[in-house]
Recover the amino acids of this structure.
């Protein structure tokens, strides 16, 4: 597995992940391209640079944990895990097909190296907090990273876990909000606005950092800042663009949950060449 | 099988207290035991554990959904968490988390629901759990246990911890009559035959086991030979014990402090129809919510005492 802090190398991986996401979802004929593409730099920075993990020893007790709480963005996680060597790359295009390990939403029964089965929004942050508490009890260096969707934080459970995490000082946990401003029914601001996002988390005693979620150096700096923040958890509010990297998908609510056609895939792959 | 014929039914601890005390002993044996609560530790008796192992006690505040999913995360990192609350809150408010964060990935979380049934008394229906067994049993892979007394609760707390997989343990608020010998063995999927009989079998769990024994003693005095079985393992069921009872006594009454529509009774009926079909009667809460009152008044009014079990027994005998 490649491990690098080199931004150009990470950007190349990110571009490849985008191509794989578009291909996987096109072959599946269903899925969520927009929110997969918006989270690419977040996952690439974590898996190839920031996180302590070892695909050759996936159950290493001291590893960092990653939870994709917005489980519908499974394709970005699958492409990253396959690139790391956790899962077979040549099966990526079996996404969502009967018997595939690449289920519609992440499923630990099919991929035991996943840390959690997700898909029902709002649960991943609590699960991640449990993992961080276990690491503290065992005095392990493990940190937990949880990627949240912006629509997802409309769930009440997120605020239960936000209150808990802030109070209990779970400083070995980082939540990353993929703030792409679009959810299934349309724009977040039309459905249930979230702003002021960082202030809300700060009020719950979280350390909040706002970054350009497509800037790998900004993400690297944010995760480094989180690692030195003691006594409270960190949320990285990552400003992202839904469908990032494919012109006709960017900021287009249609591609929250619609697969590209074959023609659209060809057009997208040209843009991502 | 050797069975007891006389029971003094001496009042013991509430099963919730037996749970809380057993959890402390379990925690002494195994440092991976963790307890979670949602602001009810004095009622669920996890405060004993919190006092002895403060670093292993997670106070979640009144946020059951978060508690269940935090428990799932702890379990996924190798802990054996016991998450406790009133049964209605743990199961109903945490149900989606029990489904997706616990049952579906088969996470090793133990959920303890105290104040089950209507015998909590004066607090009334918002705090009463009459749907919990139906909901818990509906989750694939879940083990569901409903102990009758302090002896079985203690043993089943240890059995739950030793079992790898999700478990729901149901506990009650009032003191419970002791029905089991101190050295009785309990296991997941087991049952205990308390009396042998040939005319009919009464299957019960929780507080209704003592009522079944009281009913059995009255029926025996009238010349009816009654087998009483404590079916503490609601899921998985002791299918052999049920099939044997159906074959040998050819009449079954199920008695429980739960909605009849989704409790032990319907699960037993499935086994009976698959093995040795025979007449059955059901004692339990009908399609209704209860009200405030003393536990004794409520059990009487909602048909959960020995006289109701006797009446059901006579009905089932009339249908043989």
């Amino acid at each position: 597995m490649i491990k690098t802090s080199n931004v150009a190398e990470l950007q190349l991986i990110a571009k490849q992940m985008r191509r794989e996401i578009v291909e996987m979802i096109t072959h599946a004929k269903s899925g969520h391209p927009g929110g997969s593409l918006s989270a690419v730099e977040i996952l690439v920075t974590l898996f190839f640079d920031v996180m302590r993990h070892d695909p050759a020893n996936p159950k290493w007790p001291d590893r960092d944990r990653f939870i994709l709480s917005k489980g519908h963005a499974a394709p970005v996680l699958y492409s990253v895990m396959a690139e790391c060597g956790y899962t077979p790359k040549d099966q990526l295009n079996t996404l969502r097909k009967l018997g595939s390990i690449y289920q519609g939403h992440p499923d630990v029964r099919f991929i035991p190296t996943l840390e959690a089965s997700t898909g029902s929004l709002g649960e991943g942050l609590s699960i991640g907090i449990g993992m961080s508490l276990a690491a503290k009890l065992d005095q392990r260096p493990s940190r937990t990273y949880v990627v949240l969707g912006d629509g997802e934080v409309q769930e009440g459970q997120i605020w239960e876990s936000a209150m808990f995490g802030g109070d209990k000082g779970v400083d070995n946990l980082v939540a990353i909000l993929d703030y792409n401003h679009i959810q299934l029914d349309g724009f977040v601001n039309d459905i249930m606005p979230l702003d002021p996002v960082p202030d809300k988390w700060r009020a719950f005693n979280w350390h909040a950092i706002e970054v350009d979620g497509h800037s790998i150096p900004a993400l690297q700096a944010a995760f480094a800042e989180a690692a030195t923040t003691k006594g409270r958890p960190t949320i990285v509010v990552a400003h992202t663009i839904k469908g990032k990297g494919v012109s006709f998908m960017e900021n287009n609510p249609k591609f929250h949950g619609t697969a590209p056609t074959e023609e659209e895939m060809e057009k997208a792959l040209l843009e991502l060449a | 099988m050797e069975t007891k014929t006389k029971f003094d039914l001496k009042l013991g601890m509430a099963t919730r207290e037996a749970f809380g005390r057993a959890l402390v002993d379990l925690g002494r044996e195994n440092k991976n035991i963790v307890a979670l609560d949602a602001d009810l530790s004095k009622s669920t008796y996890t405060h004993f554990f919190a006092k002895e192992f403060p670093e292993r006690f997670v106070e979640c505040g009144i946020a059951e959904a978060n508690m269940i999913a935090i428990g799932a995360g702890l379990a996924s990192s190798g802990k054996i968490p016991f998450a406790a609350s009133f049964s209605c809150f743990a199961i109903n408010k945490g149900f989606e988390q029990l489904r997706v964060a616990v049952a579906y990935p088969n996470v090793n979380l133990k959920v303890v629901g105290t104040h089950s049934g209507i015998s909590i008394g004066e607090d009334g229906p918002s705090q009463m759990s009459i749907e919990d067994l139906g909901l818990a049993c509906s989750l694939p892979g879940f083990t569901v246990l409903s102990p009758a007394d302090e002896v079985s609760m203690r043993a089943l707390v240890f059995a739950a911890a030793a079992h790898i997989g999700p478990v729901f343990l149901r506990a009650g608020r009032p003191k419970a009559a002791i029905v089991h010998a101190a050295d009785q063995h309990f296991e997941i999927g087991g049952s205990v035959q308390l009396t042998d009989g040939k005319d009919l079998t009464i299957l019960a769990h929780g507080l209704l086991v003592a009522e079944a024994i009281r009913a059995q003693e009255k029926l025996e005095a009238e010349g009816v030979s009654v087998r009483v079985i404590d079916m503490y393992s609601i899921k998985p069921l002791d299918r052999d014990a049920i099939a044997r009872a159906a074959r040998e006594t050819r009449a079954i009454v199920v008695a429980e402090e739960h909605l009849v529509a989704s409790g032990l009774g319907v699960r037993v009926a499935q086994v009976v129809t698959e093995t040795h079909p025979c007449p059955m009667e059901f004692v339990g809460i009908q399609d209704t919510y209860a009200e405030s009152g003393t536990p004794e008044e409520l059990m009487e009014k909602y048909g959960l005492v020995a006289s109701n079990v006797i009446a059901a027994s006579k009905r089932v005998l009339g249908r043989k």
In short: Chain B touches chain A at residues 34, 55-56, 58, 60-61, 63, 65-66, 68-79, 81, 96-97, 99-101, 104-106 (CB under 8 Å). The mean pLDDT of chain B is 97. Chain B has two domains: 12-177, 192-318.
